[in-house]
Amino acid sequence: MAVIEIKNLSKHFDKVKAVNGVDLAIPEGELLVILGPSGCGKTTLMRMIAGLEKPTSGVISIGGLDVTELPPRARPIAMVFQSYALYPHMTVFNNIAFPLKAHGKFSKTDIKEKVKWAASILDIEKLLERKPRQLSGGERQRVALGRALVKEPKVLLLDEPLSNLDAKLRASARDSLQRFQRRLGITTIFVTHDQIEALGMGDRIVVMSQGKVMQVGTPQDVYHNSANTFVASFLGSPGMNFIQRDNYLFGFRPEQFVPQEIADRKDDLQLFSFAVTRVEYLGAEQQIYGVVEGSSDEKKVIASLSSETNVRLETGKTYTFAVPQQQLRFFDHETGLRIEPQPL
Amino acid sequence: MDETVTAKKKWTDGFRFWSDREDLLGPLFLFPAVVYIVALVGIPFIIAMAYSVTDVTAGNTSLDFVGLQNFQAILKTDQFTQSLRNTIMFTVVSQIIILVLANILALILSTDFRGKWFARFLIMLPWATPIALGTIGWLWLLDSKFSPIDWVLRYLHLLGEPAALLGSGKNLYYLGRLELAKASIIVIYVWRMLPLSAVILMAGLTSIPQDLLDQADVDGAGFWRTLFQIKLPLILPIMSIALLFSLIFTVGDMAVVYVLTRGGPVYYTQILPTWAYLKGIESGALAEGSATALFLFPVLLAVAIMVLRFSRRTEVT
Which of B209, B217, B314 is opposite residue A72, by nearest beta carbon? Predict the structure, then answer.
């Protein structure tokens, strides 16, 4: 059963349609990632679920209850902000206890017990007497999570919670956050612009652009069966290559585009004549820039190869590259939407 | 070679030369301020300290050291003790009222509403008015016969009729009745200092990150909890600075009492600055006047140090 149901939700700021007719249903216990470039409306969407923004139109229900008109405190949600928004004048204990005190129905011993429970889950028991400014980035994040969990919300909202951590910490934070979410089984919505976080953590991903939902699906789904050219080019780094033919586009991922010699011969191969213009060495992999000859628009195409491959590629020469037929994707030239495979 | 010489010459000419010489510009720009402070604050302050421990008067300007005799002498007069009591009472009461009202005003002004810039402008007016002129305006408002306030009260049937709430007399005589005179002085102090405190607090409130307020909202805090547990603690350092400013302005001000009541009725609304002025300048008792004026200096110094330390310690990052 869906814990959150969003129907035709819109938010317009004057003339800007920040969120424009979004429908979503999120089942219990799911970790849903909302992914999109900055300005796509993902944060506005989350703030509306939290009740911090009033929708222009549409309905939000949480746990079967229509909360569209309710203030944040009347909703069974908790939220962790990008800045963590810890109250700087309170100790960690008081930060975590704040939602319980605000609730007003817990006794002092209850509050103590619940704070201890949250602190033990997140392994921050030793920090309870500290002030936020005495904590590291990772510790702050855990305190913010503790404060969100302590009131046992139905839904946990996370707004780019990893973007304030340094790159090395982020990998372990992704892992601990995901395991933690699984253990508690709490329905979680996670907003990010980082596709690695999205693909690595999400049960499902919502890809947004310009206030609209582009695609909803599992990480494998949105990556391999992108619904349109936006999703296909936004996901992956670099994104999908497109080549125009007549009235449609076809595309393939850079890692599927390999020299014919090393292509898997069991596959039904589509061959291209590829003029290399630049070879970029990136450590574990190399990226080959070039142009597919015979394509009508001569657009730049990128191939990602392992640096270990024993095929030598040189700038200025032309090679035969191959893509397995089943890895080709076809899109409508006008709408950008996925279409049935076309004859090449 | 020639080119570099002319370029160098051009560089060292006039404005460009000066605008690059921080070592000369710094002292130059500071000079007027230093002269002002030394001549109009420093020297008079040192002279006052010297006078307060001598027997100098306007008629006999020789400085003979008498120790703390002047302080002992003024402490024995009723006028001085009354002035001291009034100074403390006016200050404490007005600061409490200012603190409460300034917080309310700052909360209202920091919200978004139509015409808020005009409202902010209006609120600042008392602070922009010269204090003596403002007080003269109040003198008219509180006039014993023609007070417009009395006129309004009479119109509302609260005054000047048999069994009226505020008495059957035609006027309240604000400045002629002791309690009303004291209340009037406090009201004017509040009127005068409220804008500055409110604007300082407003700046503090608008500097609270929106994330924190949103978080409090999500955490379930209502208006009062957010106010008392989030907003006020966060602006406490800035509030203590606003209080210090307002406190020092109020303790040191003599214009309000001097224009409004001249210390009357009798000497019951006298404060230390007016009493020091009457004693030292108008009656020529320079030594006792100085002792009166300096009497609260150690207390104020201690308060200032305490407040500044407090605001630094509670500063949150």
Answer: B217
